[in-house]
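Try it yourself: sequence plus nicotinamide-adenine-dinucleotide, in.
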Amino acid sequence: MKISVIGMGYAGAVTSACLAELGHYVTGYDIDHRRINSLNSFKPQIFEPGLEKLIEKNCEIKRLKFQHVDDSDLDLGEITIITVGTPSDPNGSPNLEYIWKSVEWATEHLQQNSILLMRSTVQPGTGDLISTRFCENKNINYISCPEFLKEGEAVSDFFTPDRIIIGGNNSDAIEKVVDLHSGISSPIIKTKIIAAEMIKFASNAFLATKISFINEMANFCEAWGADVDDVKEGLGLDHRIGKSFLNAGVGFGGSCLPKETRAFTSLASNYGIKSNLLESVLEVNEYQSQIPFRIIKDVFADMNNVKVGILGMSFKPNTDDIRESPSIKIAQTLSKLGCQVSCFDPVSNQKSEEKLGSTVKFETSIENLTTNKNIILLMTPWEIILNSNWHQIFESMIDPKILFDGRNSLDPAIMKNIGFNYIGVGRGISSSHLDHLSW
Ligand SMILES: NC(=O)c1ccc[n+]([C@@H]2O[C@H](COP(=O)([O-])OP(=O)(O)OC[C@H]3O[C@@H](n4cnc5c(N)ncnc54)[C@H](O)[C@@H]3O)[C@@H](O)[C@H]2O)c1
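Structure, out:
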């Protein structure tokens, strides 16, 4: 099939390359010339394992190309997929500015009987509105087929998703979107547009709830001296609960979970609903992201003297995405309070520097980052960070040599044995055990 994809960010670049790999002829469009140029030279501006190779291969066999929306030779094909960004407004409600612009542009150029497929995450109700406002009078079929990729594993997620949700009003259009996915053997759920939109929102809100739940349990574990990892093991073996998304830590970030959870809480009042549960999920998440601040406040008499090294800036490993990353939030908090903050990330130093400016220092190696620091905050468990020479790091630090493991990804016994004042999240080795330290 001939396909166009609008919006070449994380979701769009992966969708384009993977659909081409399935055998479709794909053109990816964006409003950003630099993005288009970098994709046409096989160097995407985003870091996603496996993506670069897939782009190069499919461009070379002429199944994939990238164009600017203003190019004159437009041919959107049988299906146009929207993957533009849907950020939050400052009050938390979804901002659909990019959606309206891209839908307007696409429906102007689409042929009759073609399909407009929404892969961006839009609040329930948006699809029916687009369908009546932009599609019906032009005989264009609207389909909601939400994106569920996980950054860092997006390419494999595309080919082996847990499910494919296809929401639409026209059965021929739904079947065509089923065909679009042929080659992928995951379950397909065919539903109404509004249900497809709700499934996406509800999935992210549930995952966020799971994380905040385990984080709250971690805080109780900390108080009572239990290890939350043992608790996770016992909880997760109950098949009604499952182990995934039960890792305690400094909270969730990224472009999806915070945004979609906030959308529920900010839109609730429009419908006379009070979203008590999801408001608490966000509150717990905010509280978790500030754990390093509370540790530093407890241990050090004067914030101005504290030398902090932050290891990992992306919101999780294997991506350069720093949107709503806990590392960014804590770097901002600590530098505002006067701490001397240095940061290192294997791939997102530049993006983080653009965001944080000169308020913090960026280092190009783990060794430089950890040298002469009082406290190291391990925020993103990249393999390269976990496999560091921790003995060397310990030697390079200055007292009180605190290692805060914000993702519980190191062995506490080994780290304590090396000599670190190790603190995890809910591992029963709380900052109250650092009472003897006073700096
Ligand atoms: N990133 C993820 O992990 C992920 C996962 C699931 C769902 N989603 C959803 O997918 C959507 C896209 O997310 P993303 O992370 O890829 O966003 P992004 O910000 O990385 O990329 C959006 C792209 O759209 C382009 N764009 C904006 N307006 C345009 C227009 N009118 N025409 C053409 N291009 C335009 C931008 O220049 C940018 O390149 C969002 O709704 C998001 O919630 C993202």
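One thing you can check immediately is this: The first strand starts at residue 2 and ends at 6.
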